Amino acid sequence: MDLDAVRAKYDEEREKRLRADGNEQYIEPVGEFAHYLDDPYVPVAPREPLTDDVEFVFIGGGFAGLVTGARLKEAGIDDVRIIEKGGDFGGTWYWNRYPGAMCDTAAFIYMPLLEETGHMPSRKYTRAPEILEHSQRIGRHYDLYDNAVFSTEVTDLTWDQDAQHWIIRTNRGDQMRAKFVAMGTGPLHRPKLPGIEGIESFAGHSFHTSRWDYDYTGGDPSGAPLSNLANKRVGIIGTGATSVQCIPHLAASAGELFVFQRTPSSIDIRNNEDTDPEWFADLKPGWQQEWLVNFTTLQTGGFTDEDLVKDGWTDISQRIRDRVLANGDFSPEGMTQAYHDSDDEKMEEIRARVDAVVHDEATAEALKPWYRQLCKRPCFHDEYLDSFNRESVHLIDTDGQGVNRIDETGVFVGDEHYELDCLIYASGFEVGTSYERRSGFDAVGRNGQPLSEAWADGMTSLHGVHVHGFPNMFVVGPNQGANLISNVPHNLTERGRTIAAIVRHAVDTNAAEVETTAHAQGEWVAMLESGGRSFGNDPSCTPGYYNNEGKLDDGAGSRNFLGYPDGPVAYFEYIDGWRNSGDFDGLEFR
Fold first, then answer.
1. Is 46 exposed, middle or buried (0-12, 13-18, 19+ CB in 10 A)?
2. How does 541-575 read in b/e, with b if 16+ C-beta sit within 10 Å?
3. pLDDT grade, residue 555 (50/70/90)?
4. Which of 183, 254, 468, 589 is the most exposed place for a label (fewest CB within 10 A)?
5. Whole-angstrom Cα distance, residue 500 to residue 355?
6. What's CA 572's distance to the chain center, in Å?
7. How would residue 316 be classed by pLDDT, with cut points 50, 70 and 90?
8. Are 267 and 358 contacting, i.e. CB atoms less than 8 angstroms apart?
């Protein structure tokens, strides 16, 4: 490789895609676009408004709410209610039912509570229907359905200091009261639309991938052919992880498929395989926690005797680790050089794979990613690239600029017009926008302070869980903690354990309030900032949701993505010791 030429190519491709408007290039699904949020899967059942008292309310019915609810139930906290805007549990796996949807981290570590529920993943990477079914299994196993509220969105969350509880209002007229509340609305639930001129004018059929319209396409989430598309001209905007999974199904069924690409994804080998029941039955108790630790250790550059997961995530990390050992240079500069060398090797392999699979040279060249692998979500698939060998599939590469206009009959790229019957938006979810915009409400804490005001200069917390001025409130996500993006459910499982331990202690000591001190919160954030470990802070990366569309700064944008300086493994060990010590240092129980 001519590394100087590669670096120049990376810079050139990045510059094409930088936009001054960053996240503002996307449209919120409100007003005339509000129908993109409609639930096509479960009709909203009428019910009377709720005005009751609940000990613990969790906002969000995805993995965050399920694992926290499970740990609370295990800790003897039975009065738990989950509020979910979808018609059932599942979170992103409730909404994402597009054809081909599956996890891209091995199911044995991605799907939580496997041992507790007795479930064996059918494959190394399971499809969406099985993950949705597992979400429902968790709900049944821990009796979380008994008090759950579905098809309901929280509109207001306010702390009542006199009564020492939270008041929760919803779009269904509810006004509940909860002693404790947790927010786990997550980054992958609120769809966004590309802000393309004329998007409102398209007269054909359109939908977002998170609201897949099987009535129009035919087929089903299990992979049945999309038979209704046989004579249709279908366009799809976006070539990220969602498109990589659904395009092979569209390619096999559509009369013609037009793939509008701004930035190609890196497509590594998946090598999916069925689970051997005999092998699974021989796993020893505690195996899932062992696998979680093993994956996280290897994926973040640590050492283990064996790679239990053996996937693309651990591959790149082990390459870096082995190079450091071979070079014998453990300095920060040596580590950086090992990362660059390993990434150069990996990305050259990924680009060579495109040449080996895709027949047309021009198409192959356009599908090659020119950035470091972890600049964007790595993709693993064994049918995506082959789709472009079909005569009916057309890659419309926009040279980093994207679609520039939509009209009644189709899409413009430059001066070229593409007539379409159906236009699918694989434009992803809101990630870098403010918390209150993504969640749909703004928590109001002590003295009437909104969370948006408390976080005006970026997220501040203790452990990524507690916020000063917001007693009895918990935040569940990866931020300002482990920041393990390769396997987000691991973050959620650990936070669920932590919250359950705190609530159990509060109940046992008759504490009406639990809150982090301002001093402890300040020390935690200062420690994170001094460590400088932030997700998506590489200024050389091509724009995407990993780096706030390329608009990094030293304030709120970077603070929101800070992680524990010593890495995820160290954070998980730290928080385990902290919650099991019984001291709960940094919290006040009143």
1. exposed
2. bbbbbbbbbbbbeeeebbbbbbbbeebbbebbeeb
3. low
4. 589
5. 51
6. 19
7. confident
8. no
Tokens 């309901």: give the residue: 152
In the predicted model, is pLDDT for residue 426 greater than 90?
yes
Question: Residues with Cβ < 8 Å from 528, sequence gap 6 or more?
Answer: 480, 562, 563, 564, 565
Q: Which two tokens stand for residue 196?
A: 């393309």
Residue of 564, 543, 503 lying closest to 73 (CA atoms): 503
Distance CA 157, CA 155 (A): 7
Tokens 């579905």, residue located: 150
Q: How confident is the model at residue 172 (pLDDT cuts 50, 70, 90)?
A: very high
DSSP state, residue 49: P
Q: Which residues contact 65 (CB under 8 A, 6 or more apart)?
A: 58, 59, 82, 84, 89, 91, 182, 184, 476
* Exposure on the CB side of residue 529, measured as CA atoms within 13 A: 18
Contacts of 10 (CB under 8 A, 6+ apart): 370, 371, 372, 540, 542
Distance between CA atoms of residues 203 and 481, nearest Å: 46
The DSSP symbol for 228 reads G
* In the predicted structure, residue 136 carries a pLDDT above the cut 60: yes
Give residue 188's pLDDT: 61
Q: Where are the beta strands (DSSP E) in 450-578?
A: 473-475, 514-516
Instruction: Give pairs for 399-405: CB < 8 Å, separation 24+.
Output: 399/16, 400/13, 400/16, 400/17, 400/262, 400/263, 401/16, 401/262, 402/194, 402/196, 402/237, 402/260, 402/262, 403/194, 403/196, 403/237, 403/260, 404/196, 404/197, 405/196, 405/197, 405/198
Give the separation between CA 227 and CA 229, rounded to whole angstroms: 5
Percent pLDDT > 90 in the chain is 80
Please tell me whether residue 14 adopts helix, strand or coil conformation: helix
Residue-wise pLDDT for 187-197, tens only, equals 666 788 999 99
Average pLDDT of span 554-569: 82
- Which residues sit opposite 413 in a β-bridge? 416
Which residues are registered as beta bridge partners of 193? 27
Contact 513, 589 (CB under 8 A): yes
Residue 31: per-residue pLDDT: 87
Complete DSSP assignment for 290-348 = HHHHHHHHHHTT---S--SS-SHHHHHHHHHHHHHHHHT--SHHHHHHHHHHHHHHHHH
Check if the beta carbon of residue 221 is closer than 8 Å to that of residue 101.
yes
Mean pLDDT for the stretch of residues 500-514? 98
* C-alpha span between 532 and 538 (Å, rounded): 12
Q: Which residues of 327-352 are buried (b: 16+ CB within 10 A; e: fewer)?
A: eeeeeeeebebbbebbbbebbeebbe
Say which residue the tokens 């302070």 belong to.
Answer: 449
Q: Which of 521, 526, 530 is nearest to 475 (CA)?
A: 521
Which residue's entry shows tokens 């949705």? Answer: 132
Please answer whether residues 179 and 165 qualify as being in contact, where contact means their C-beta atoms are separated by less than 8 angstroms: yes
| DSSP sequence for 385-415 | GGGGGSTTEEEEE-TTS---EE-SSEEEETT
The C-alpha torsion from 207 through 211 and 213 to 214, rounded to 10°, is 150
Both tokens of residue 511? 């504490």
